[in-house]
Structures are given as structure tokens and as C-alpha cells.
Amino acid sequence: xxxxxxxxxxxxxxxxxxxxxxxxxxxxxxxxxxxxxxxxxxxxxxxxxxxxxxxxxxxxxxxxxxxxxxxxxxxxxxxxxxxxxxxxxxxxxxxxxxxxxxxxxxxxxxxxxxxxxxxxxxxxxxxxxxxxxxxxxxxxxxxxxxxxxxxxxxx
Length: 155
Prior knowledge:
By secondary structure, this protein is of the alpha+beta class.
């Protein structure tokens, strides 16, 4: 190509058009990240109690990653097929099978142990992949769904 020729126009195509946030975090970023999740979730159509519930669930997961997963983690928030999906990963030692299998509500006077239970209760779906190399928890909630759809799975 000579200097007289103009370059061909480029077409930019996002690799993941649904990706809203992809960010590493540690304790110092927890509050800022929670605010970013709130803004993105609201802009994606969550409002009211469903927005509050989803943000609280995400906050529990990022706090768990910092406390139990090596002090830092990675968050990915995306919009997929009418859902808002959040994945939080860490490099901790994993979650025991006993802990994962216990779906009962923690006792009211229990200081810890609420994070996974709350995340499960406050989201439409929750999946956990855990092992010695770390844990990834994926939660989702329907976007634009009526208040009564989804999360209210009380024991």
C-alpha cells in the first residue's frame, strides 16, 4: 500500500456484546464494584426489590471471594437471553461438599454462613463450581420479569 492509498475501513464487532462488567477486585474495590453492578443492573431493566435482591446477592458473593477465596476475585456481569448473569470466581481452597449440600437457613444468631444461602434465595438460579483451585458461583435473575416471578423460594 502506498501513502496515497487510504486504508480499508474497519468493522468493529464486539467479542461479547452482552458483557457489562469484567473486573478483578479485592477488598478495596468491593463498594465501587457493588455500585457498578447496581448501575448496570438498573440500566438492564432491573428495578425495585428485584434490583435490590440481585445486588445484595452479588455483594455476598464478592465479599465471600475476598474473605474465603484468597483475598481477591474476578466478576463478570452479562445480559443473556432475558437474564442478568453474574459470575464471581476466586482462587481459594474450594467449598466443602457438606457446606454446599446444606441449604438450610442459618440460625438467626449465626455471625457467618449467610452468603451462599442469601445468594441462592435472592436470585433465580445459582450454580457453584468448586475445587482445590478455586470457586466460581454463577447467579442469574430474569430481566423485566414481574416482581413475583423467580426468586421467592422460601423454605
